[in-house]
Amino acid sequence: MKKESSHEPGRKYGMVIDLDKCTGCGSCMVACMAENNVSFKEDESNKLDSITWMRVYRLTNNKPFPETEIRYLPRPCMHCGGKGDLGHSPCVSVCPATATDYDHKTGIVSQIYTRCFGCRYCMAACPYHARYFNWWDPIWPADLKKSLSPNVSPRMRGVVEKCSFCFHRYQLAMERAYNEDRRELEEAEYQTACTQACPAGAIVFGDLNNPDHAVHTLKDHPNAFRLLERLGTNPKVYYISDREWVRRSGDNYLNNEKTNTKPAVQEHHS
Amino acid sequence: MKIDRRSFLALGIGAAAGTAFTPLPWKLTDDLSIWTQNWPWTPVPEDGDAYYDHSVCTLCPGGCGILVRKINDRIVKIEGMPSHPVNRGGICALGISGPQLLYGPDRVIAPMKRSGARGEGKWTTLSWDDAIAEVLDRLKKLEADNKTEHLACICDTDRGTVPQLFKRMLSLFGSPNFMTTPSMYDSYEAVLKKMHGRKDTLDIGFDFENTDFILSFGSGVIEGWGSPVRMIMANSAWKTKKAKQIQIEQRLSNTAASSNGLFAVKPGTEADLALGLACVIMEEELYDKAFTGAYSTGFPEFRNMVTKNYNPDVVAEKTGIERHLIIELARHFASAGTSSLAICGRGKGQTAGSMMEFMAVHSLNALVGKINTPGGVWSVEHPDYIPWAKEMNVRAAIAGKKRIDEAGSPVYPDSLSLLNRLPSKILESKESPIEMLFVSNANPAYTLAGTDKVIEALGKIPFIVSFSSYMDETADQADLILPNHIYLERYQDVPVRGGLARPVIGLTRPVVEPQYDTMHSGDVVLKLAKGLGGQVGEGFPWDDYKDCLEKTMADRWKELEETGFWTDEAYQPKPWAGAFGGTYGKFAFSDTILPLPDLEGDVKDYPLILIPKESMRISSSHIGDTPFTVKTVPDTELKGKTLVIEINPRTGKEQGLADGKDAVLKTPLGQVRVKVSFFEGIMPGLMAMPKGLGHTAYGKYLKGKGASYNALVGPMEDPVSGQDISWGIRARISRV
Amino acid sequence: MDSAFIPKGVKRCSFGTFSLGMLVLTAIVFWGFYAAILCWLKGLNQTNMNDSYGFALWIWADLAVIAIGGGAFFTGLLRYVIGLDELKNIINFAVIVGFCCYCSAMLILAIDIGQPLRGWFIFWHANVHSMLTEVAFCLSLYLSVLAIEYIPILLENRKIDEVPFFHNLGHTMHGAMAVFAATGAFLSCFHQGSLGGVTGVLFGRPFGYREGIFVWPWTFFLYTWSAAACGPCFTMLTCKITEKISGKKLVKDNVYDLLGKISGWMIGTYMVAKIADTLYWAYVTSPSLGFAVMDYYNAHPLHHGIWILILEIVICGVLPAMILISRKGRANATLFTLATILAVIGVCLNRWVMVMTPMAMPVMTFDSWVSYFPSWQEVATTILPLAGGIMIVSLSFRYLPVFPQEQELNPVD
């Protein structure tokens, strides 16, 4: 269909997160903030205006004590491939100014802060609430500006931002590879900040299309599922849990429906 | 006139139309949009060469190795060190946000002297020379008045050169009153003394990596207990190899949620359950007879006492756990394939626990022979690398002088420090027996239970010197602040006391130049010692702290500088023969059980129990949280500035509460306005509040958010160790 | 005082009374602009929107004013393309009201975006897949068309008409109006539709998502149809309000009757389509995504209850359609007015639900419903164009010969 993807085999970066290993410790959230110059403000307790590219949700089975169970669910941007995996992510297809784009080489959904004019249509489109608006000017008091990384530009007020799968790390890795006259990346060469930080090793990141990468096999785990599979957003983040109620929390079901564990068959580009 | 107007109009329209065809408006529009992309108040980080430097994190006792990513001379990121034996690349939220501590607004940026009332927050800066001269004046006065033991010092630990320098200075000066922040390690070390009979200090170690069954008595295994990152990694490994973990706790903590089973015993009956399990193991002859036979003493007495008082029926009644479940759990524990181990120390282990509980749990491990065996509980020899810490003349200087907290006295022979007893000792006396207090890497005004009493006691001390890098609660009460470099700016050895199964010493290195007018506390101590001269001065033969550290580390120094850590890869604990001291060189079971104190508060007035809720996302130690970590606190714990209390919906409704609504929480020590969050995962009759919030110091990102657990809860003294073993308090809650 | 500017042969209120009214409106406009400036200078933290409610009062206001401004294109279409000549007696007014509506939408959009100075990126970096791009292009083009349609009316002002150039220009433009009206109708169909597409294409939001034909979801057609149906009702309603305030009849009843009848049939057919769409969505689309239809309405019965659907479809849809279709209903002035009011409420309610509920509703099972109440800045900036619109309509009515039948209906002694 798309020309871009036909001549190059196309990497498709994605994640598999083991929810049974996730301890909800918050390392991924903070690693992401520190890596990506995410701003902060005095009160962040209103989670509706708190920028957390990686947000950890608490899921519960709502059974009475002591049968209660909880699981934590880290939610980065899902980097949806959209219906048929053609790159028409819910957000990309609606952005009027092409400020967010689907990179067919990596499957990563980008966000161009200097082009975004803040209409927030993408936020309305994203069912995962992965997109955040800069309602305020970012402020780094005292000497905190010194802690900002030059690899990611701080965002100005009035634009939308979101997880980029640490795309700058991909670029740096590719740069190094090109300098060594390579075109392919080893699995370890490009890892996101959250994956790297996770003490539980619950997040695994890599090229879903590459059989040498762990995610390639893990995504087909019998207990693997994706969030809101039925909407056809085609996310690149998979979750694993041995708990049926957790897998069921991943999607909406009518009362009489059975939980569907296997992700829908996807179209691969060849 | 008409013509004028008409031509004016025409000119106007013409000009407007004409301009539209020039590039001017388009250029301006473009410039405007470019301006919005380069707003001068949105920073553009300076670019430069990126490189990594290694160091060790000191924000908790975990001792993780860190890689510091730098751009020129700026720290832009902290990551875990993949080659470090403790954390193997993993890192916690607080550790990552280290740069915010370095560059953040809460730092004390120069020596400061109080200029208002205590706690008023009025300060004047002064030079380091003046500040040190002032301390020296006061020390000399104490010396002249022959009141040297009126000097006391509080450190986070007694491990490593910096606390030891403080301790040495105190000792040579003539004061035995060196105290440390309490933790579960105090209890564990007392247990090792009592049951292993060893005079030297041993570290408790757990071979979690090789165990198949973990029985946790309320320990927050994945919530900051032990060395937090190592524990989370171990937890993942258990999942992979399908090891079992059973949690004994009253609420669905993250650890409980991650476990294979939750045993919700009635609060305060953990030790009873442990002894109940011991009873089953002994009655069913499931214990390790090789161990109890040849390597222990007191076993028959212990067996008698336990079978008499803790049979499953009695314990079922006490704990609320059904008899058959107790028996099954005991069988499982005693026969769990290759290896099982029981641990205790509640939550993050930031408080001591009752000796009854710790000894009962340790007895369980002993019964199944899991002392110093693979996958078991180890007594790890402390890497004795500070030769000058044990010099005889230093001990002689304080011979005959009594510690104010009575630690090590005949009453509490197995305790090294009882900081929890300091406030009441001061408040009992008319004039404070402590006239001068040093506080380094500790924040007792926040972390000790019964904050009001602690602050009242501090208020009676005539002169307090804080060595804090941050404007914390204790610094707030100080007369003089001599700010230390933070860990990213200084050298320091970090012997890890985190329940590791081998000795590890890390080296904290100055990865950036000191950012402000601060001084290494080790250097301050050296300056003070030299200023005092005489016996004290002679006891500090080093040029400066780095000289001291290098000489102390001797052969290990080079390795530490290069790799950031030293460890004994092949460490094995001593085998049973030779592992124990005491009269018989055997493990000592004990049949003495002293009754535990009741929970503070009257049941009639306070029908519920308040317990703390500890989490990796909130630092509840002397280190305050960063803007980033505060951002991770969920709105089920903090909403605006209001603390959110977790309560079982059933209990909540009984108390007339509504989910998400305001309420007033009251304990015998105080009351606070809270919001209520109904959560099924807590035992009815209990309330849990996040620990680590409610700071009255630090800056706007932390101060005044939520309420402090320690302000609502009083200390509870263990009859054996004298440690504070408080784990909750009676409370009530009502709708507003 | 300003009698030289007032059209010949008609009577207007005193300049004093008029100025007083204008003063009040100006004050409201200033208040609105103050709020707008706050938003521009301090950013959108001045609103009560949040990351869940990224679209809120303003987007609703945009969709609503454009829907009710649809009277201009549809009346134009009927008058110039279909050739219903009677409608010439209301077309001027329809154009002015439409012009006000579209100006309002543009103004609100300029406040609503986080980076107004980059607003033109929507044209420069246009993404053809985005409904919003289509909206932006059609909206701005149609606003130009409306301006062009408005100019000849302006030129009819007594004083301006004295200038030969303007007189001739006006005359020429009048002649070309059919072309503009046709262009306008075409553009309007598209952007009304694309506004419908705005929520209709959101396949991540089951409440708003609709299947459809090719790239257009059903809402695309429903929005166009409903705007064409209810827009004229708003024109008639405002016309009647103008009559009420000026105290005289301005348009003959047969004009109302004709437009009312057409509206009635349009609303009626729209309702058939809307009900079919709702049923298909409720019983086919939603269940396939895992939602029972009552999942949408049961969680927050007060704010997002089924009552809204009943109100929209039965009371503000079927009922006005029945009134306007029946001759008796049209003949009864009270019922007629009631029907126009209901139709306007109905279409606004439709836009409200389509904007608000998808924002409030959680899609992930572990997410929760979000509530929202606009800040005063949002309210003020929404009232601003309303007051501005009233000013434009009042000024036009006072100084321009808007109603061709006015003189005949109200002979001045």
Poorly predicted runs of 5 or more residues of chain A: 1-7, 265-270
Tell me which CATH architecture of chain A applies here.
Answer: 2-Layer Sandwich
CATH fold category name of the largest domain in chain B? Rossmann fold
Proportion of strand residues of chain A = 15-25%
Q: Separation of termini of chain A?
A: 10 Å
What distance lies between the first and last C-alpha atoms of chain B, to the nearest angstrom?
A: 76 Å
> What kind of sheet is the major sheet of chain A?
4 strands, mixed
Number of domains of chain B: 4
- What oligomeric state best describes the polypeptide chains here? heterotrimer
Instruction: Determine the mean pLDDT of chain A.
Output: 92
What is the string of helix and strand elements of chain A?
HEHEEHEEHEEHHEHEEH
Structural class of chain A: alpha+beta
Helix content of chain B: 25-40%
Q: What overall form of chain B do the CA principal axes indicate?
A: globular
Give the largest interface pair and sizes: A-B, 65 and 79 residues
Overview of the structural elements:
The complex is a heterotrimer of chains A (270), B (736) and C (413). With 270 residues, chain A is an alpha+beta fold. Chain A contains eight helices and ten strands. Chain A has one domain (3-249): 2-Layer Sandwich (Alpha-Beta Plaits). Chain A has helices at residues 3-7, 27-35, 90-94, 121-125, 167-179, 193-197, 214-218, 244-249, and strands at 13-18, 55-60, 70-75, 100-103, 108-111, 132-133, 160-161, 203-207, 224-226, 237-240. In chain A, the strands form four sheets. A four-stranded mixed β-sheet of chain A has the order 8-1-10-9. In chain A, strands 2-3 form a two-stranded antiparallel ribbon. The termini of chain A are close together. Residues 1-7 and 265-270 of chain A have low confidence and may be disordered. Chain B is of the alpha/beta class. Chain B folds into four domains: 2-37; 112-184 and 383-563, Rossmann fold, CATH 3.40.50; 208-375, Dimethylsulfoxide Reductase, domain 2; 608-735, Beta Barrel (Barwin-like endoglucanases). In chain B, the strands form seven sheets. A seven-stranded mixed β-sheet of chain B has the order 5-4-17-16-15-6-7, with helices on one face. A six-stranded mixed β-barrel of chain B has the order 22-27-24-26-25-28. Chain B has a four-stranded parallel β-sheet with strand order 11-10-9-13. In chain B, helix 13 packs across helix 14 and helix 17 packs across helix 19. The termini of chain B are far apart. The mean pLDDT of chain B is 94. Chain C is an all-alpha fold. Chain C has a single domain, classed as Up-down Bundle (Formate dehydrogenase/DMSO reductase fold). The chains are: A alpha+beta (270), B alpha/beta (736), C mainly alpha (413). The interface between A and B is large, with 65 and 79 residues.
